[in-house]
Amino acid sequence: MLQARFEKRVGDFRLLVDLSAGNETIALLGASGAGKTMTLRCLAGLEKPDRGYIALDGHVWFDGEKGVCVPPQERGVGLLFQHYALFPNMTVRQNLLCGFRRDTPRRQRSAEAERLLERFCLRGLEDRLPGQLSGGQQQRVALARCLARKPRLLLLDEPFAALDAHLRWRLEQELMTTLTSFEGTALYVTHDRDEARRICGRVCVMRAGRTQPPEDVEHWHSHPATWSAAELAGFENIAAVSRTADGMAALDGWDALWPGDHSDAAAAAFRAEDARLEADGGSETPDGKDFVILCRIIRTSGQETICAPLRRPECLLRAAPDRRFAPGDTVRLCVAPGKAVWLRGED
Questions:
Q1: Which of 60, 165, 200, 220 has its CA 20 to 30 A from that of 286?
Q2: Residues 35 and 146 occupy one common structural domain
Q3: pLDDT, tens digit only, all 347 positions of the chain
């Protein structure tokens, strides 16, 4: 069980982490600069938090009040960097042997290294240097080295970011097999929502240095809680909400009204695929069934239709592709109430 609650400042950036995890794989999902990698570095002991507490399975690694800070080599963490950090002057076998704990007997290290070579399909490559390996082979060596010390915490920092799409898919399958049998906690840093859904059971969204409460990855994908979570989940259309005198939700960014009581919402969002276009009927009055905005088509493609509200032409909305309409046409953009999500303010 990982328990981490800590703070660290770097210049004007403030990292605030509050995260608990069991034997599972959790995605740390956020935009560049959100603090994902810094979080991993603090957990691994490569960075020291300013205050807080980090413990794994009851073993305290950091306690700011008691002055406890266990060094990285004693935490037994498996950390896989984006660019693998293999020793360039060492062979594959030598890199693997460097992954074992210092107190592991030499004979045991050699036997375990042979098993790792077999498990990760590295047989025949054991005497090559990293520069003589493909990107996928380097990734397998780095992951095998991470697992050599049998860590209870595995930290994966965008391990597929440097790979081509076809190779990424194949190695992703191998990683999922590894994580399925991994008896510990794995934190997987990514900014790819589809990757997070395929690999992880829960997701922790990070925004501006703050972690949001982890939640089931499929629930997050269909019902994100905050604006930043909705952006990461792929909701293309998001607007702030205010309330009219008669209790309707006013979507300020689109100068439109949505029927129903949404008094506790800070914003509303819907996906492009859930927005259908109809020929202009001249009415934008909510009828209690669909949310409607009168728009003008800006451009169309085989992937989406871009349109702008007539009263807010500087704002752009994205809808499903619809070849019936051409740029300049006026249309009704309609969204069924059940297709929208209502978002709370950021934590």
A1: 220
A2: yes
A3: 999 999 999 999 999 999 999 999 999 999 889 999 999 999 999 999 999 999 999 999 999 999 999 999 889 899 887 777 889 999 999 999 988 888 888 889 899 999 999 888 899 999 999 999 987 788 889 888 988 888 999 999 988 776 777 777 777 888 888 888 888 999 999 888 999 999 999 999 999 999 999 999 999 999 999 999 999 999 999 999 887 777 778 888 887 887 777 768 889 999 999 999 998 765 544 455 788 889 999 999 989 999 999 989 999 999 999 888 999 999 999 998 889 999 988 76
Specify the number of domains making up the chain.
2
The CATH number that applies at residue 104 is 3.40.50.300
> How many angstroms separate the CA atoms of 80 and 86, rounded?
10
Q: Coil, strand, or helix at residue 331?
A: strand
Q: Do 129 and 51 fall into the same domain?
A: yes
Token couple for 237: 């259309």
Q: What is the pTM of this model?
A: 0.84
Tokens 């493909």 belong to 134
Range of the domain at 22: 2-232
**Could you tell me if 227 and 241 lie in one domain?**
no
Instruction: Report which secondary-structure segment, H or E, holds 233.
Output: helix 227-233
Same domain for 77 and 191? yes
Residues 17 and 162 in one domain: yes
Q: Are 13 and 7 a contacting pair, CB within 8 Å? A: no
Nearest alpha-carbon partner for 100 in 139, 145, 130, 142: 145
